């Protein structure tokens, strides 16, 4: 029997954001029955950053001439994905060599981050991918890599080597996944970001499907 897992973070006021990024403000602009004349519908204004919650990083995030969010190939965002569980705070090449990622086109990492991905306070000691781990995945020919926190690499990385390696190679990054209720294994991923023209990033609704 098919089962669908929603692996997206909910967007709400006061939610977790990366330090320095815009916060989330959701304001009800019209309320049914309120106002003169009375409104017949509820309408809200959303104000948030391009890397809010579950979101994608396109090449333009780090490269001025890179593809923007609206130009990402859809075949990279939909298809077979493998969820890999990692207990260490550093996901490196040594770990990945024995983690069973061979043959996976899209790799999603479930880590200890899952225990606080819905908390409002940011944890800067989150599990992350190392540059040699990123190189290993690139050599495997992956199209997409995701993780269960708001950045895929170490907090305050000086050179942003992981982002630059992936995005410079056309590998899509998905951050802010919620994999709390997902077991390691193979799934079908559908991760569609908002079609923001010229976007350096875009929030996405992501689901995993288990047949």
Whole-number tally of structural domains: 1
Note the quaternary state here: single chain
Major sheet details? 7 strands, mixed, barrel
Instruction: Report the CATH superfamily.
Output: Putative cyclase
- Roughly what fraction of the amino acids lie in strands? 25-35%
Structural class, by secondary structure, is: alpha/beta
CA-to-CA gap between the ends? Answer: 6 Å
Number of strands: 12
Annotated CATH topology: Glucose Oxidase, domain 1
The appropriate CATH architecture is 3-Layer(bba) Sandwich
- Give the helix level as a range of percent: 10-25%
Q: What integer is the average pLDDT?
A: 96
Topology pattern, helix = H, strand = E? EEEEHEEHEEHEHEEE
Rg value: 18 Å
Shape: globular
Uncertain spans: none
Record the strand order, biggest sheet.
4-10-9-7-5-11-12
Assigned CATH class:
Alpha Beta
Overall description:
- It is a single chain.
- The chain has 211 residues and is of the alpha/beta class.
- The chain has one domain (3-11, 49-210): 3-Layer(bba) Sandwich (Glucose Oxidase, domain 1), CATH 3.50.30.50.
- The chain has helices at residues 74-77, 93-96, 131-139, 161-168; strands at residues 3-6, 25-30, 43-47, 55-57, 78-85, 90-91, 106-110, 128-129, 144-147, 172-175, 185-193, 202-210.
- Strand 11 (185-193) and strand 12 form a beta hairpin.
- Helix 3 runs parallel beside helix 4.
- The radius of gyration is 18 Å and the shape is globular.
């Amino acid at each position: 029997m098919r089962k669908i897992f929603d692996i997206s973070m909910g967007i709400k006021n006061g939610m977790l954001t990366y330090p320095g990024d815009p916060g989330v403000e959701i304001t009800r602009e019209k309320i049914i029955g309120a106002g003169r004349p009375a409104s017949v519908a509820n309408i809200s204004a959303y104000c948030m950053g391009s890397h809010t919650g579950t979101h994608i990083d396109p090449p333009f995030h780090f490269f001025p001439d890179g593809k923007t969010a609206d130009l990402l190939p859809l075949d990279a965002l939909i298809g077979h994905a493998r969820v890999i569980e990692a207990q260490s705070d550093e996901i490196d090449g040594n770990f990945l060599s024995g983690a069973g990622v061979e043959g996976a086109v899209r790799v999603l990492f479930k880590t200890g981050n899952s225990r606080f991905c819905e908390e409002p306070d940011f944890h800067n000691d989150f599990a992350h991918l190392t540059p040699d781990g990123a190189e290993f995945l690139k050599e495997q020919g992956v199209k997409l890599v995701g993780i269960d926190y708001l950045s895929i690499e170490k907090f305050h990385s000086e050179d942003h080597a992981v982002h630059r390696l992936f995005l410079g190679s056309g590998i899509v990054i998905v951050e802010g996944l919620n994999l709390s209720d997902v077991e390691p294994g193979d799934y079908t991923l559908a991760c569609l970001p908002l079609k923001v023209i010229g976007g350096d990033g875009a929030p996405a609704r992501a689901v995993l499907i288990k047949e």
